[in-house]
């Protein structure tokens, strides 16, 4: 805990000092530029020594850009993250290098065929910068293995702060679309709240049971905020994530139990989805016809699938699905696919979807072996969220959700606790036989 707090303090000091000096030199453009260059070079040298620092800086940038809205912050952070990948590459394990290679390949493929070689589209540049940043963040986290507690702390803070804002500004969510808070709409805010609650509860169950009462209190507050957001996708992510956090340890060691649960749970979820959504929307006061919402989502998904079949290798380009939706033969509305996997498939083709699924499968396997209550719960929540929104194209959700996937890959099995007098298999007790000496050992 002390090392985590020290890291947070160092990053905060670096960010705050750069802001203060930059503001003081704002009247002198040359001095401001020199200050930015010096701060960047200092951070780059620090990343070479400690690659995981790049992840902490990137998480600080997510907060800093709320105060200084400029894309240059993300570009600089992306360069630091790529430097962190290079610095940590040799020390990383084989599975970490494979996952990082897949993440970098996914980022490169989407950038090349979804942006550079694709026709221009609305919000294409913003989505491209967000996805580049998210891919570099996940790759750096995979190979540098930062503190899982620090990542959970960030996710929890994002979730609880967003929940507090939503509960104190319920009227602001009436429009649901547009930039409501932190660059996200109502569904995006719901996702931030859901993933934060799952992270806190999963960490408490996996690592520190003493924090479970506080995590449970945070989950209750988060659920109240979810009702205000009226986001069905966020409710799904919240529910499946918490269920996985509570029962994952017993499920992953019993395949027949998992199969039995899947056989009964999936049909029940399918049959009860409309009823549950109706009750949730009624409680939240959201004025929408549930069946109409499901019909529109299915039309959007079908349209995205058709576009992917027409352009299976390269896709139609990032941001173009909404434009084609209003054209002749479209769905009649300018809306995204509302599905991460179909949206990425339509934007960059089957290779991009294959790379994303491959990374998530590696993450699932690692999480089942090491941290099912935390890693697997986060992965299931991220997957559930992906069935409702395109988080890969969100400036805030993409880096945080990709970081959840990365955590499943780099996080190791926590050290077992041994009672006093018990023998630790990694450090066996020294022999007490008569005649043993340092020379004999």
Give the secondary structure arrangement, pairings included.
Elements lengths: L1 H23 L4 H21 L3 H15 L3 H18 L5 H23 L7 H21 L3 H21 L17 H21 L5 H18 L2 H20 L3 H30 L5 H21 L9 H6 L14 H30 L2 H15 L10 H14 L31
Helix pairs in contact: 1-2, 1-3, 2-4, 3-4, 4-6, 5-6, 5-14, 6-16, 7-8, 7-9, 8-9, 8-10, 8-15, 10-15, 12-14, 14-15, 14-16, 15-16
How would you describe this structure to a colleague?
It is a single chain. The protein is mostly helical and 441 residues long. It has two domains: 1-91, no CATH class; 93-410, no CATH class. Helices cover 72% and strands 0% of the residues. It contains 16 helices and no strands. It has helices at residues 2-24, 29-49, 53-67, 71-88, 94-116, 124-144, 148-168, 186-206, 212-229, 232-251, 255-284, 290-310, 320-325, 340-369, 372-386, 397-410. Helix 7 (148-168) crosses helix 9 and helix 10 runs antiparallel to helix 15 (372-386). It starts with a helix and ends in a 31-residue tail after the last helix.
């Amino acid at each position: 805990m002390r090392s985590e707090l020290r890291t947070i303090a160092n990053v905060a000091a670096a960010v705050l000092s750069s802001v203060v000096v930059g503001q003081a030199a704002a009247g002198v453009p040359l001095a401001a530029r020199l200050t930015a260059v010096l701060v960047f070079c200092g951070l780059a040298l620090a990343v070479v020594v400690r690659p995981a620092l790049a992840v902490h800086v990137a998480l600080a940038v997510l907060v800093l850009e709320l105060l200084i809205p400029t894309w240059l912050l993300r570009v600089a952070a992306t360069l630091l993250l790529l430097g962190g990948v290079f610095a940590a590459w040799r020390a990383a394990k084989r599975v970490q290098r494979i996952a990082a290679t897949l993440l970098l390949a996914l980022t490169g493929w989407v950038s090349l065929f979804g942006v550079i070689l694709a026709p221009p589209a609305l919000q294409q540049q913003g989505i491209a910068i967000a996805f580049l940043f998210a891919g570099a963040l996940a790759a750096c986290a995979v190979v540098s293995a930062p503190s899982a507690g620090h990542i959970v702390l960030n996710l929890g803070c994002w979730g609880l702060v967003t929940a507090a804002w939503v509960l104190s500004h319920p009227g602001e969510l009436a429009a649901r679309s547009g930039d409501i808070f932190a660059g996200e709409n109502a569904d995006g805010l719901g996702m931030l709240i859901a993933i934060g609650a799952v992270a806190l509860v999963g960490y408490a169950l996996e690592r520190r049971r003493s924090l479970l009462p506080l995590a449970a209190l945070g989950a209750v507050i988060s659920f109240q905020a979810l009702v205000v957001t009226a986001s069905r996708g966020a409710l799904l992510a919240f529910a499946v994530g918490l269920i996985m956090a509570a029962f994952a340890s017993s499920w992953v060691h019993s395949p027949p139990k998992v199969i039995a649960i899947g056989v009964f749970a999936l049909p029940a979820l399918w049959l009860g989805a409309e009823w549950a959504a109706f009750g949730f929307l009624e409680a939240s006061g959201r004025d929408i016809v549930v069946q109409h919402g499901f019909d529109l989502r299915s039309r959007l998904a079908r349209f995205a699938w058709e576009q992917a079949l027409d352009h299976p290798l390269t896709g139609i380009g990032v941001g173009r699905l909404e434009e084609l939706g209003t054209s002749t033969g479209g769905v009649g509305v300018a809306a995204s696919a509302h599905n991460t996997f179909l949206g990425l498939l339509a934007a960059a083709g089957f290779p991009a979807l294959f790379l994303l699924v491959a990374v998530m499968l590696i993450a699932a396997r690692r999480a089942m072996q090491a941290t099912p209550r935390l890693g697997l719960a986060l992965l299931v929540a991220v997957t559930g969220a992906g069935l409702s929104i395109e988080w890969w194209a969100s400036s805030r959700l993409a880096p945080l959700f990709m970081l959840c996937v990365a955590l499943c890959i780099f996080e190791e099995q926590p050290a077992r606790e041994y009672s006093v007098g018990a023998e630790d298999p990694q450090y066996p007790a020294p022999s007490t036989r008569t005649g043993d000496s340092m020379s004999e050992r």
